[in-house]
């Protein structure tokens, strides 16, 4: 796939989102948004990720009005609790114990906009993930790898964390951090990319 006419920007520092778009064959630039995530008022998890994705895309779009900008935000929820990115080993351990043997939801809000064309599209994709029962030894080993940090929910499905996942219902790339199928479909519909 290519984007010969339009400029495409990913408004994220996430190497996982960057890799997903590269795997899909897109040509784009990475220009991270600097949105303060605490500035977005908390609401339902769905509303929260959609608002954050929109804020990120629109912030970058202000500086690059002719480009198509992709913003995204991903969270993990279980039993009404939102699991962010663990900052300590203890926090990572609590998250993994909470997820052990249960199904949780991964929500990614994404927003694609072009200021010059006055086009903005935002949506949320949900995926259900079932973890196996984790032993204390497995949790400690995984935390020791360093992988849980900077990951929503404290794990990376595309990394070593795959050993914990029994079943995924829905989009795999959504769990990684961006629902690629939905993003590609919208870009194609708008004529941003060619197949």
Question: Could you walk me through the main structural features you see in this protein, from its secondary elements to its overall organization?
Answer:
- Helix content is 32%, strand content 25%.
- It contains 6 helices and 7 strands.
- With 195 residues, the protein is α/β, with parallel strands linked by helices.
- The mean pLDDT is 93.
- Helix 3 (89-99) crosses helix 4.
- The protein has helices at residues 15-23, 45-63, 89-99, 136-144, 172-176, 180-189, and strands at 8-10, 29-30, 68-78, 81-83, 103-114, 119-131, 165-169.
- Helix 1 links the parallel strand 1 and strand 2 (29-30).
- It has a single domain, classed as Maf protein.
- Strands 1, 2, 3, 4, 5, 6 and 7 form a 7-stranded mixed β-sheet that branches.
- The N and C termini lie close together (5 Å).
Tally of helical runs: 6
Largest sheet: 7 strands, mixed
| Top CATH class | Alpha Beta
CATH topology: Maf protein
> How far do the termini sit from each other?
5 Å
The total beta strand count reads: 7
- Unreliable stretches: none
Rounded mean pLDDT is 93
- Counted up, domains total 1
CATH architecture: Alpha-Beta Complex
User: What class do helices, strands and sheet pairing give?
Assistant: alpha/beta
Helix content: 25-40%
